[in-house]
């Protein structure tokens, strides 16, 4: 299965470090970030899980839940969580899925359907494609997919930036330009005619080209229809 943006994120039941979950029920009315790891006790992943624990409040303030995944059994996860706390200074404060049967990795297209056997017999390189970040909306649809190599740690500040953009553009008919940060100017969406734009933005907009209409960032919490 190959997931695409806009697809419904596959639902599943799994055991996690915080108990069993049914994924869609766990998401509820929130946004979610699912980030995956090829194996426990891998150095880059250890730093990532620790960093995510440190910035978890930044996700929570945006109504975003975090959940990790690694292709190892639960007893290994419990040992790894202690290692993460000791080496990174923060204990993961979010669930980590035990995907020892490869079910979730296959559902999300990170491992091929024919993968089987004991996860302990597989090396991190065998699972190197399990290095994804999925951002999922309250509608349970996939909004972002990022895939990283094992040798490059993920930039979760960038994930927060994208979530800010996703949440803003879900509420307003705008798009965010390159390098956009919270509070920067935005672009009126191409689907909005000039007549419609005049109603929404009576003070007008900058227009370096007819297809580039720049306005101040609207208030995310004030939806304009």
First CA to last CA: what distance? 36 Å
Q: What structural class is derived from the secondary structure elements?
A: alpha+beta
The level-1 CATH class of the largest domain: Alpha Beta
Number of helices: 7
Provide the β-strand percentage band: 15-25%
DSSP, total strands: 11
Give me the CATH fold name of the largest domain: Glutaredoxin
> Helical amount among residues, as a percent range?
25-40%
CATH architecture of the largest domain: 3-Layer(aba) Sandwich
Can you write the helix and strand succession as a string?
EEHEHHEHEHEEHEEHEE
Would you spell out the secondary-structure blueprint of this structure?
Layout: E1 13-16, E2 19-22, H1 23-27, E3 31-37, H2 43-54, H3 56-60, E4 64-70, H4 74-88, E5 96-98, H5 103-107, E6 132-136, E7 142-147, H6 156-171, E8 174-175, E9 186-188, H7 194-200, E10 206-209, E11 212-215
Parallel strand pairs: 3-4, 4-5
Antiparallel strand pairs: 1-2, 3-6, 6-7, 8-9, 9-11, 10-11
Helix pairs in contact: 2-4
Describe the structure.
- It is a single chain.
- The chain has helices at residues 23-27, 43-54, 56-60, 74-88, 103-107, 156-171, 194-200, and strands at 13-16, 19-22, 31-37, 64-70, 96-98, 132-136, 142-147, 174-175, 186-188, 206-209, 212-215.
- With 225 residues, it is of the alpha+beta class.
- The chain folds into 2 domains: 13-152, Glutaredoxin, CATH 3.40.30.10; 172-215, Antioxidant, Horf6, Chain A, domain2 (Antioxidant, Horf6, Chain A, domain 2), CATH 3.30.1020.10.
- The strands form 3 sheets. A 5-stranded mixed sheet has the order 5-4-3-6-7. Strands 8-9-11-10 form a 4-stranded antiparallel sheet, covered by helices on one side.
- Strand 1 (13-16) and strand 2 (19-22) form a beta hairpin.
- The longest helix is centred in the C-terminal third of the chain and has 16 residues, at 156-171.
